[in-house]
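URGENT: need a sanity check before tomorrow's submission.

F., can you look over the Non-homologous end joining protein Ku record below? I want to be sure the sequence and structure line up before it goes out.
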Amino acid sequence: MRTIWKGSLGFGLVNIPIKMYSATKQRRLDFDLLDRRNHARVRNKRVNEKTVEEVPYKEIIKAYKYNGKYVEVTEEDFEKAEEEKNQIIQLNSFVDEEEIDELYFKKPYYLAPEKGNKTGYGLLRDAMRKTGKVGIATIVMRSKEDLAVIRPVGDALVLQKLRFGEEVKDVDELALPHKVDIGGQQLDMAVELINQFSTEFDIRDYKDTYTEKLLKTIEAKAKGKKKPAPKKMEVVPTKTKDLMAQLKASLSSGQPRMRAS
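Structure tokens as predicted:
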């Protein structure tokens, strides 16, 4: 794996030198933009909006518009803004993971100890595992500060970025039902239907079938084959008066438990 960040993990007065690695990878097909007329690549160019000339990469700077004027911001300015946080992830508190709503979770990263520093790393991991707690910290990466949770996953410590509270929109903006007036029998049948389809979660049961089907379509086109057009699926919402009938039909259909497609 490629190291994307190096620094220390602070635990009280203990500093554990670590490396950070991306824990996920993109699984999608990369498409190029072409000119339909001759299949030549279409390129994006950085141009000066006044001269319409292409600007060499070395001449491009970052700037912030302040009081109507641009102020140039250098890499040194970014480093000075939070010099300490650029080098250390300080665990500020420990909480029960269940207290953090999944709505706040973002991208995960693996943390690994630098050579010769496995003891402190293992101590922190095992202590969190024993207490059932996860650590809360902040980290500065790519000129941006993020809130993060650090937790043990197997033998690894995983850092997962969190959204700040102000980054999550308030549901009050949505027209949601506060209470649904339904008969007790309907609710009982809905609960029974959920129980009928309940199973243990195993991530290996779920596959990205869309990318696989799209790749097969591309392969068929490359070989000059034409795949039949898919039938358009029409989704018809169940009307309130039909709910009971649909619930009964679902329970009596004898269909297997829901699994990944």
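My own read: The two ends are 31 Å apart (CA to CA). The beta strands are 5-11, 14-22, 62-66, 69-73, 88-96, 105-113, 133-141, 144-153, 156-162. If you see anything odd, call me.
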